[in-house]
Amino acid sequence: MNLEQKYQKLQDSLQEMESVAIGFSGGVDSTFLLKVAHDVLGDKAVAVTSKSETYPQEQYEEAQRLAREIGAPHRIIHTEELDNDDFARNDSNRCYYCKKELFSSVLLIARKEGLNYVLDGSNYDDLDDYRPGLKAIKELKVRSPLLEAELTKAEIRELSNRLNLPTWDKPSFACLSSRFPYGDQITQEKLTMVDGAERYLRKYDFKQLRVRHHDAKTARIEVLSEDMPFFLEHREEVVTAVKSLGYTYITLDLQGYRTGSMNEVLTDEVKGNG
After folding, report:
1. Are residues 112 and 62 in contact, defined by beta-carbon separation less than 8 angstroms?
2. Across the strands, what pairs with 47?
3. What is the DSSP letter of 154?
4. How many CA atoms lie within 13 A of 31 on its CB side?
5. Counting C-beta atoms within 10 Å of the first and last residue's C-beta, which end of the chain has fewer, N or C?
6. Which helix (DSSP H) or strand (DSSP E) does residue 249 occupy?
């Protein structure tokens, strides 16, 4: 299918659903999905956002703003992932436990408001990475219409630009729990350190950015290769700012930013079981 055919398939699929609740983070994918669903279904497309310790406050506020701009009804839920020992211990199925809790809550909203389907923003490219959350989504019978229409991230950005969405070139974002090596217990203190470091570095408008947290005291920074010279020019101020958050060692990953770098240690067998 070409892009126009995929876009039409998405719209037709949403029309057939008649009413939906969308797990809405304010990222590129879920914002595009909410916009198209609202265009097709009006107020029968409801955004549902979780206010959670694993997502920065500024991301939550941006999700609220985007839902208002689109004009979609917006519901806020509260999830407490750190209270779930399975999640906090951070094994390779961490995302499964997170998505299971999140979308179980979204399903409750859908049932309460009489909405036919619950949707998530997974896209076709997500099939290429280790995504245990997709297992939870499948178990709960959540639909992924962007994936079903075979829309890739690049195509979603192109269509978002066409629809004048401000997220069309927004950097990819994942919850803060993805910044920790598997097996490293996730705590509120560590989340606060990572959030503070990324919030400081985001003021420089990097196209992509991650601060990976290692061994309690090491921050491994990932940016695109073209942004690496910045760190040589501003090394002292970056080190001072990030150390003030509790880190002892500040490193720059010479491989640069890449999606899911924490999954590189996983074996093919583990990935296959996800």
Report:
1. no
2. 22, 74
3. H
4. 31
5. N
6. strand 249-252
Q: What is the pTM of this model?
A: 0.87
Residue 4, classed as helix, strand or coil, is helix
Q: How many Cβ atoms from other residues are within 10 Å of residue 184's Cβ?
A: 16
Q: Which residues of 246-273 are buried (b: 16+ CB within 10 A; e: fewer)?
A: ebeebebeeeebeeebbbeebeeebeee
Chain segment 64-105, per-residue pLDDT in tens: 999 999 999 999 999 888 999 998 999 988 889 989 999 999
Distances in whole angstroms, Cα of residue 49 to Cα of each of 56, 59, 68, 166, 169: 13, 10, 13, 18, 21
Confidence class for position 200, pLDDT limits 50, 70, 90: very high
Give me the phi and psi of 135, to 5 degrees please: -65, -45
Does the CA dihedral 26-156-145-84 come out positive or negative? negative
- H or E, element range at 3: helix 3-17
What phi, psi does 132 have (nearest 5°)? -60, -20
Length of the chain: 274
Alpha-carbon radius of gyration of the chain:
19
| CB environment 103-139: b (16+ within 10 A), e (fewer) | bebbbebbeeeebebbbbbbbbbbeeebbbbbbbbee
Decide if pLDDT at 222 tops 90: yes
For the chain, helix, strand, coil in percent to 5 are 55, 15, 35
